[in-house]
Amino acid sequence: AMEGGPSSRIREGDCAVLKRDDVFKAVSVLRRRKIIFEKQWFYLDNAIGHIYGTTFEVTSGGNLQPKQEVEETTTEAKEAGTDNRNIVDDGKSQKLTHDDIKALKDKGIKGQEIVQQLIENSTTFRDKTEFAQDKYIKKKKKKYEAIVTIVKPSTRILSTMYYAREPGKINHLRYDTLAQMLTLGNIHAGTKTIVMETCAGLVLGAVMERMGGYGSIIQMYPGGGPVRAATSCFGFPKGFFDNLHEFPLSKVQSLLSGTFSAEPEEIPLLEEESNGLSEEKQQETEEEPAAETTMEINPTEEQDSMDISAEEVEFKESKEKENKENVREKQIKQWERRKKLKEAAALLREKNADGLIVASKFHPTPLLLSLLEFVAPSRPFVVYCQYKEPLLDCYTKLRERGGVINLKLSESWLRNYQVLPDRSHPKLSMSGGGGYLLSGITVLLEQGRADCRNSEAPKVEEPSSKRCKLQDLPC
Amino acid sequence: MSFVEYGDTIKDGDTAIVFLGHESMFPVKVQHGTVTQTKYGVIRHSTDLIGKKYGSKVTCSKGGWVFILHPTPELWTMNLPHRTQILYSTDISIITMMLELKPGSIVCESGTGSGSLSHALIRTVAPTGHLYTVEFHQQRAEKAREEFREHGVEHLVTVTNQDVCKNGFGVSNIADAVFLDIPSPWEAIGHAKSALKAEGGRICSFSPCIEQVQRTCLAMEEYGFTEINTLEILLRVYNVKTISLQIPDLGKAAEDNSSTGFDSSNPSHQGSPCANLQQGTVQFKSGVPLREVVGHTGYLTFATKS
């Protein structure tokens, strides 16, 4: 219940989200760092110490100051017209020129005042209907009021932000689809959850938020290491990461077949784009792949064989000591990495995970078929795919495999509304699609049999009411 | 077992879900000596259920079989006894995320109704959070208390029998979120505001009619809520089926060489993965929408207390 304490104040080093109307941007709160957001430049220094959710005005100097509450003068009867039959849009109704407005801005006049000036200098304003005047004011405010709200990151904020700004990074996973996944997967505190995602760590973050640091997560990853750019935005306490494990997909087959070994193998030098863009790589909090380590050790050996003068010998000796320390450090890191890998493998080997969440750019079928092996019976799983067809295939293969019930292929439809007196209607633009989900529940897999009662394998379409529960099928 | 903690084996006193097949399941209270009738025969709790692993297949007396599943709020929502119209998981999912609920959250809810949303909220805020739920119907309030007890979650929830519009939620300045699903939510906005923590609390109101939404939005504005946003969400389910479409007979051209149209013996069509060369049909897998779907549940309005 004490959530509202210190964590609700903006602190230096936080990841905060800037908000203006429906536009979001995540930034690091650092002093003397110029931020650009919605065509405004400012420093965050003055925001530090304020409560999250505070709305600030950007002063002409690029500093933030809390926005004062302004009394809206709504009680006066405004002069207004009844319709637009006589309003001609000739582009000349605003008497202030571009330069006039710029001059006002340079004088440091506040946005609110500029809007007032625009209204007074508009020849057509008083002819507009009240609704049109309202709309006009809102539009001008949006353009000239230099305000920004600083909000605390959460799944709600970050998933909305990513979907609007960088949907490609999250495989176009719309925020309501993510919401469905968390519920369908029964993500909650105290469970052991397997997550496989290539959504910049957003899905992982959402899962971590719903687990509250309780339980454990094993993140499966392709390539050299998991991308957790979005995860760091959530601002989780350090303790949340104690029970976050990771395991490479490339070792899954060996783990399933019992031939797993934590020793490094020949790692291909192509670190490829399966690991995300290079900028994301820099933000990886994860261990470097073993190959890099080996490559860094070699230059040391080369240095030893160089031939030199006494001065350089001394230098060389201290360098050697340094290098030996580096090597030792790297060996420790490698040992730690191997230890963690073994721990993750041990957790997976128990085959008793409470849930599985998959949201990646890869074809879902091979992922599901292999990762389900690690999940206990009577537990939910959810797979996200940007496209429907791969999930059709996944569904079919799961039916053949057996050990799953209640399979459901779904898509969620989302619509936002404008609600105003006498002006309520759905918003004009809408997302065309937010991806698809395949969900189900595991059951004890019997040796060699599918759950044939519900077989929907190749057969001609029949209306669902006629589809019989074939009790007499030999099972 | 509890609704907030998974168990592995079925125990006496558990609530378990009996799964018979596609969209066919029901909850059962596991009890020594009891039997449960199903269309596939009888299930004897003592021998067939208690001690078995969740997820097991159980063969009933007539020879048919079922699966026994561990309860979850989602399965409960699909199977609970309705005392009122309930919220389904689609709405529940977006409500949970938009209210930013997580372990430790304090939530207020009214009306409790049949407890569909309540179970989901409790699961999300466990083990350190709490749900304060208000229901003005005395029997419903009592039934809810009983169910929470049976489901092992009574320590996470407080049911209050009163009218939220008159008397609020019974708590002040501590809630992270408030949820309203009542006929006149605008009458409870003031109480919601006082139940919410000082800054940053979230509110959600669910109403089937747009007129209710309009009044509620106005009230939210008057009480100083910001970020007011209304949306609706629907689930579209697809049935995965293999479809066979016949190839029409377009006859033959005047010259006798080859037939026109989609000729399955035509070498250029042999590579097609879906052509069933023998029967003159094309098969493919499709995700077919259902004939009738839910077209509306209610509008969800969210806002922030600032």
* E-strand count of chain B: 15
The termini of chain B sit apart by 40 Å
Structural class of the helix and strand makeup of chain B? alpha/beta
Terminal CA distance of chain A reads 53 Å
What top-tier CATH class of the largest domain in chain B fits best?
Alpha Beta
The mean pLDDT of chain A is 83
**Element pattern of chain A in H and E:** EEEEEEHHHEHHEHEEHHHHEHEHEEE
Largest interface: A-B, 82 and 84 residues
CATH superfamily of the largest domain in chain B: Vaccinia Virus protein VP39
Total E-strand runs of chain A: 15
Give the amount of beta strand of chain B, in percent: 25-35%
Low-pLDDT runs of chain A: 1-6, 267-307, 454-475
Give the assembly state of these chains. Answer: heterodimer
Biased composition (Acidic residues) (chain A): 265-274
Keywords (chain A): Methyltransferase, Nucleus, Transferase, tRNA processing
Region (Disordered) (chain A): 265-307
Main location (chain A): nucleus
How would you describe this protein?
With 475 residues, chain A is α/β, with parallel strands linked by helices. Helices cover 32% and strands 18% of the residues of chain A. Chain A has helices at residues 98-106, 111-120, 130-144, 155-165, 175-184, 202-211, 252-257, 278-282, 290-304, 310-349, 364-371, 389-401, and strands spanning 15-20, 23-28, 34-37, 40-43, 55-58, 64-66, 147-151, 192-197, 216-221, 244-248, 355-359, 380-385, 404-418, 425-426, 436-442. In chain A, the strands form three sheets. Chain A has an eight-stranded mixed β-sheet, with helices on both faces. A five-stranded antiparallel β-sheet of chain A has the order 2-1-7-5-6, covered by helices on one side. A two-stranded antiparallel sheet of chain A has the order 3-4. In chain A, a hairpin with a 2-residue loop joins strand 1 (15-20) and strand 2. Helix content of chain B is 23%, strand content 30%. Chain B has helices at 45-49, 73-79, 89-98, 116-125, 138-150, 164-167, 189-195, 210-222, and strands at 15-21, 24-29, 35-38, 41-44, 57-59, 65-69, 106-110, 130-134, 157-160, 177-180, 202-207, 225-246, 275-276, 281-289, 299-305. In chain B, a hairpin with a 2-residue loop joins strand 1 (15-21) and strand 2 (24-29). In chain B, helix 2 packs antiparallel against helix 4 (116-125). In chain B, 46% of the residues are buried. The mean pLDDT of chain B is 92. At the A-B interface, helix 4, helix 5, helix 6, helix 12 and strand 13 of A face strand 1, strand 6, helix 3, helix 4 and helix 8 of B. Strand 13 of chain A pairs antiparallel with strand 12 (225-246) of chain B, so a sheet runs across the interface.
